[in-house]
Hints:
The chain is mostly beta strands.
Amino acid sequence: QVQLVESGGGLVQPGGSLRLSCAASGIIFNANHMGWYRQAPGKEREFVARINTGGVTNYRDSVKGRFTISRDNAKNTLYLQMSSLKFEDTAVYYCAADPIVFKMMTMRPSYWGQGTQVTVSS
């Protein structure tokens, strides 16, 4: 059974930082491309960042320079380091995985986590 379990969300002030983690089980972690997506209230889910099996990363424009995605294949864990957080970063953040990169690129990964809430508020 595949499980992706996110943690690290919470309430943070604008300009603050958070580090999200996603612990994976039931998949061959290093054979899967991994990504973070988010969904704000009343909005559609959107791509945030992606890291492929070779470590190549991609980001949505609005988080470039502020967010860093990384993976630890030895720990089967995906990370998202978020800094200089803004009000508009408030959302539920989801971890996702798929061995086919095209499915990640088209927001159709096979595996999703349950999400972790990130709230940026003063």
